[in-house]
Amino acid sequence: DAGVIQSPRHEVTEMGQEVTLRCKPISGHDYLFWYRQTMMRGLELLIYFNNNVPIDDSGMPEDRFSAKMPNASFSTLKIQPSEPRDSAVYFCASSPGIRNTEAFFGQGTRLTVV
Amino acid sequence: AQSVTQLDSQVPVFEEAPVELRCNYSSSVSVYLFWYVQYPNQGLQLLLKYLSGSTLVKGINGFEAEFNKSQTSFHLRKPSVHISDTAEYFCAVSPSGYSTLTFGKGTMLLVSP
Predict the structure, then answer these.
(1) How far apart are CA B35 and CA B57, in angstroms?
(2) Record: contact A56-B34, CB cut-off 8 A
């Protein structure tokens, strides 16, 4: 398997624009996680899905953030409108199960909002 | 809720020297413990994990960690580091049985010749 695939790897956008980050989990993994990494706050869990259903979105910072998983092989994280403080590296991870298993991470999307 | 403290933001060390990266955690429930490594511009890769059993856990690339429940610590060690070990290392916890990870702020290991 190619691992967790995220696109784009880098995104530069202007404040106020809509940004969509994409993730393809490892085939057969039932759990998908979105994390955000910043210098100030480190790595934070934003939201996770089980079998395409959002389970816990308590980490989503604001209503400007939304995440979807329309099928088992694709998820999006959308920010609308984007702000400079959203600049961060966003990681997607997937796991075959919620118990006794590790999460496999993608290479991340580096988002810069100017 | 869980929290993780990595006391050292940077650890400089010479090649072939031993190293210890410190991790302390707090939790009201039993936890699983993990160390991940992040090379520049890469995602996170699992080094090792403690789920249960022996408190000394061996991982990839010659790393090992020891779980100390009384001290709520999970320090990472390597007896002899290489230049290629230069990376950021993250300690993480999850409630026992769950994959939702809480990460520490990370420790940058800088190995010089």
Answers:
(1) 11
(2) no
